Amino acid sequence: MAAKYYKKDKEHAFKALSRDIKEGTVPRLVLLCGQEEYLIHWYADLLADHYVEASCKPIDLVCLEGESLTLQNIQEGLETVSLMSARKVVTVPDFAPAAGKTLKGFPDGDVGELIEYFTRIPEGSMLLLTAADPKDAKTEREKNKFRQCKVRKAVEKHGRVYDFETLKGKDLRNFIEKRFQHAGKFYRPSVVELIIGESGYDNKSVDYSLYHLENDLRKIIAHSGENQEVTAADVRGVLAINPENDIFAMLDAVGKKRKDEAFRLLHNLLREESPKPVFKLLYSITAQLELILTVKEMREEGMAKAAMQKKLGIHQYKLQKAIDVTGLYSMEELRKILSAAYQVDEQIKTGLFDGTLALEYFIAGI
């Protein structure tokens, strides 16, 4: 019988899993994976709490990692009848083979036997594997490689894979709003949008996850003190400046012939992006230039702002910043600037210029 596998283009994994828990359709074999480790860990705990009685956890919940993680222990754990819980749950956190990587102490032969065992997991038990996306998988090709690993494909066939991608749109707003509601704080929609726009959560070049966001939300709530309402001032008093915003500001300053301000922003960005500032910053600058050029083309085609946002899939704050910059440059100028940014990358890699000097020449030449 083919395994049910949720479609990412229809719903987020947390919705699919929440529904499956409610309907009682979570199978005996589950893999929680994806980009958002916060959600992986959250729902791993939720599954354990749902199926295992609190008083029986020492017996009915088995967590295998380190030296205790062996094929024999996995099988023995699953085949031992639960005491009083709905299921005996065996969890294997951060299981490297489920991300296409080797695991010391768990040879390929054991991985193969485990995959074969997936079809024999007892009805009253559940094997819960977790594996976040590898941090070194940068390109789509690299990401697709680990998604095609044999463990993951076997889970898709015999159980269910829940791939937790980053939150978007309404789901991200709900995440923020629930934290404020739990703290008993009033908030305006504009404050939630400000947090999304300023935090950098939707910026792929910024290492900012839900763990960072939740921590910042705690600080924002604390900053509001005894006040019943969380305000924009509380947000700006806590959130670090998103480097992406300084890139837009730098390009804005260049367009307005304020080179001194542009150089100041450049050096601020170089300090913020330490310890590998140049290539990371250059990647961000190139990405924003590509966005600005695309937005410029859309505007000249007469596309409405709402349509742009839907097509690009970016936050309204980011789109507005790009729109603001497009008015300062012609299409030809933007293409030349973007071409110059590509050349900077080559100049640095070939050793023609020092990284910082190359970026300074780039700004000077715009």
> Taking all residues together, what is the mean pLDDT?
86
State the total count of DSSP E strands.
Answer: 5
Q: Which residue ranges are poorly predicted, with pLDDT under 50 across at least 5 consecutive positions?
A: 1-9
Give the CATH architecture of the largest domain: 3-Layer(aba) Sandwich
- Give the C-level CATH assignment of the largest domain: Alpha Beta
Q: What share of the residues lie within helices?
A: 55-70%
How large, in whole angstroms, is the Cα Rg? 24 Å
In N-to-C order, the SSE pattern is HEHHEHEHEHHEHHHHHHHHHHH
The share of residues in extended strands comes to 5-15%
Order of strands side by side in the largest beta sheet? Answer: 2-3-4-1-5
The CATH topology name of the largest domain reads Rossmann fold
Put simply, the count of helices is 18
Structural domains: how many: 3
> Structural class, judged by helices and strands?
alpha/beta
Could you characterize the architecture of this molecule?
With 366 residues, this protein is an alpha/beta fold. The protein has 3 domains: 13-164, P-loop containing nucleotide triphosphate hydrolases (Rossmann fold, 3-Layer(aba) Sandwich); 169-238, Helicase, Ruva Protein, domain 3 (Orthogonal Bundle); 243-365, Up-down Bundle (Zinc Finger, Delta Prime, domain 3), CATH 1.20.272.10. 58% of the residues lie in helices and 7% in strands. The protein contains 18 helices and 5 strands. It has helices spanning 13-23, 37-51, 57-60, 71-79, 108-117, 140-147, 150-158, 169-182, 189-199, 210-223, 232-238, 243-255, 259-272, 277-300, 305-312, 316-326, 331-349, 355-365; strands at 29-34, 61-63, 88-92, 125-132, 160-164. A 5-stranded parallel beta sheet has the order 2-3-4-1-5, sandwiched between helices. Helix 5 (108-117) links the parallel strand 3 and strand 4. The radius of gyration is 24 Å and the shape is globular. The model is unreliable at 1-9 (pLDDT under 50).
